[in-house]
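Dear Dr. H.,

I hope your travels went smoothly. While you were away I took the liberty of generating a structure for the chain from your last submission, since the lab meeting agenda had it listed for discussion. I wanted you to have the full record in hand beforehand rather than looking at slides cold. The sequence, exactly as received, is reproduced here:
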Amino acid sequence: MKIALPDAEATTALGQAIAHLLAAGDSLLLYGPLGMGKSTLARGLIRALTTPDEDVPSPTFTLVQFYESDPPVAHFDLYRLTRPEEAFEIGLDEALDEGCAIIEWPERLGDDPGRFLGPAQLIIEISEQGDGRLATVSGVGRWETRLKDLHV
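The corresponding predicted structure, in token form, is as follows:
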């Protein structure tokens, strides 16, 4: 599925639409170069699950931020990881046991990120498209069928 994201508002709206489909154990993998809107999408999703004015800083330096919501959500930025196993040290497995995880820079998990994640993965690759962005969305596990319910 391809979704045009002409501006930050559209990227936020995609995050909000995804929020309503999330369940405990889900992983949202956000791929794309710096500045593509991964944190904007995550912020829209988290605010849809918490409150519209929730403080949602980028976890670039803290590596992870946890939010009390239904389901609980953890926002990971793995850019600074030096080895895939460090994801366990910052609580990725616990986050998936209790809730869901938004993961920026999942490529830091190595060639097989699925070995760290549960069976339900939503994969979003954000790339440039003209003056805006293009989200290429795919799913693994229950997300393969849940994608039909994604309306932006």
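Two observations you may find useful: The chain is about 25% helix and 30% strand. Residues 77 and 104 are 5 Å apart (CA to CA).

With kind regards,
E. W.
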